[in-house]
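Q: Okay, next protein. This is Aspartyl/asparaginy/proline hydroxylase domain-containing protein from Prasinoderma singulare. I've checked the sequence twice, so it should be correct. Can you predict the 3D structure?
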Amino acid sequence: MGMCPVDGLGTGDSLAAPRRGGRHGRLHGGLGRQPGEGAPRVGNSDLDSGGKVRRTTYSDWMETEYASEARAFDVGELLPRMLPLEEKHKAWASREPGRNASFYRLLRPVDVAPLVAKLRRAEGRPPEGGAPASEPPRVWTYDGQEGQAFIDGREDNMKQFKPGVYDMKFVFSSNNAKHTVRTPYWREWEDVLRPIIEAVLGRGACERLIRAQLAYMTPGAKILHHRDTGNWVKAAHRVHVPLEVNDRTRFQVKLHEDDDEWVQIPLEEGRAFEINNNFMHRVFNDGELHRTHLLIDLGEQDDRTYIDLQPGEHCEYAKLNKFGVCH
C-alpha cells in the first residue's frame, strides 16, 4: 500500500488517478523512502546536520499547469495556479490526506545560459565555467560590486544563518513588503533577468517583484536550519531558479515537528520551482564547486511602486521597515 500524501508528495497507489492539490496542480508518480543518513539526533544541533533524509526526484512532485507551453502569458494567468499564499501561514505540513496544497511546486524549465554567461564574465571566469580564481569571486563581495547600492543592517543575518553564502541584490523590500527598492544592478542586469522571470512567471511579473537576488554558495558552505520570517514571506511566492549546481548540493526541508525526517528536493540547472519558505529548511554545498541560484519573491498586487536607488547609495533597512524611506 502506498504512503499517505504528504503536502504534495505522490503516493505509490495514486498513479492511475493523480490528484490535484492547492489550486491547479498536476501530480506525478510515487515516492519511496531511502535509508536515513546523517548524525543521530542530539538536541537542537541535529537540525543543522542530522536526521533521516528522504531523497526525491521531479517525478514525485506536483507540477504547476501552464495554460500553454508555447505562447507568452501574463502573470495574472499563472497566479491562481501557484501555491496559495494562505499556505504560507503554515509552519508544518498536515498528515491528513487532502489537507495540504504543496509546499513545493515545479515550474517550467527556462534557458538560463545568458544570465550564467554574464555572471561568469563578471566573475572573471571563462565561458565554459569551472572553478573561479578565488572564493568568492570579487563581484560577490560588496567591495567588488562597483556601481551597486546596498541595504545596510542585514549583515548579521547572513553571518548567523548563511556562513559562506554571498548575494547580489536586484530588488529588496521592507520586512512587511510594503516598501520596495530596486538597486542599480537591476537596471544593469535586467536584460538577462527579465527574460527568465517572464518565461517562468509571465509578463508583468517584474512589476510585482518584492525581492530578487542571486545567491552564491562557496564550496563547503552551509545555510543553517531556519525559516524565512516577516510579513514579506507570507505576501510573496518564493521561486528558485538554479543557475549552477553540483551533484553534492543538498536542499532539505522539514515537514513535521514530531519526527526527525528531512525531505531532499531535486536541483537541476534551469528547472524553476516554488517553495514555501516558511517551512524549516537547510542547504549544504558539499561539492568542490560553488552553487548559484536566482531567488525571486513574487507579490500578487499589481500596483507596487519602487524606490530606485542610485550607485553607491546605502539604504538603512531599519528605516525602510519603520518609515518606508532609506535615510
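A: Here is a summary of the prediction. The domain at 109-323 is CATH 2.60.120.10 (Jelly Rolls). Confidence is low (pLDDT under 50) at residues 1-8, 10-45.
Q: Noted. On to the next one.
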